[in-house]
Amino acid sequence: MNADFANRGWSPVYSASSSSRVVLVGQAPGRIAQQTLKPWNDASGRLLRRWLNVTDEQFYNPDLFALMPIDFYYPGRGVHGDLPPRLDFARKWHPCLLTQMPNVRLTILVGSYAQKYYLDRCAKHNLTATVADFNMYLPDYFPLVHPSPLNIGWRKRNPWFESDVIPALQTIVKEVLS
Questions:
Q1: Rounded to an integer, what distance in angstroms lies between the CA atom of residue 178 and that of residue 176?
Q2: In angstroms, what CA-CA distances link 71 with 24, 76, 86, 134, 148?
Q3: What does the alpha-carbon distance between residue 108 and residue 31 come to, in Å, rounded to a whole number?
Q4: CA–CA separation, 129 and 149 (whole Å)
Q5: How far apart are CA 52 and CA 71, in angstroms?
Q6: Are strands 141-144 and 65-67 parallel, antiparallel or unpaired?
Q7: Residue 90 class from Cβ within 10 Å (0-12 exposed, 13-18 middle, 19+ buried)?
Q8: DSSP assigned state of 163
Q9: Quick one: average pLDDT of 157-172?
Q10: Is 80 exceeded by the pLDDT of residue 74?
Q11: Mean pLDDT of 58-74
């Protein structure tokens, strides 16, 4: 399944521990994350850590956060950003990892790929509606828009996200980590 990536000398990019309390599911590592083998090691990651109100040390502590994208390898560049992750990768590997993390109290779903995979038919008709109705998915899941700089227009059109959703997210994350 991953032979093409192994032949390039690439390693999977994720972080997890049997003690992880929060699972953060994103799309796939970006180019920089793949090169540095550090998930969310870019502008999107910096914004995400601000949204969560956590330090780099907390975020990269696998006993607190499992950083588990839908695909553990950079999918390559597409016409409008990165190519989509391989969903069959998540189907094979996520259940194996999740069974080894008995202390997980919250799964944060960053972006539409993670939401479609985990929420399936419970997801709303689009990402905006799913994120707006985040309370519906608690206490297990918290859906978020991707913190990519490409999504700044979405955040400007949806000011309720930063005024309502982010404070709720920060409160829940603080409770889970304490």
A1: 6
A2: 13, 12, 6, 24, 17
A3: 22
A4: 20
A5: 22
A6: unpaired
A7: buried
A8: I
A9: 98
A10: yes
A11: 96
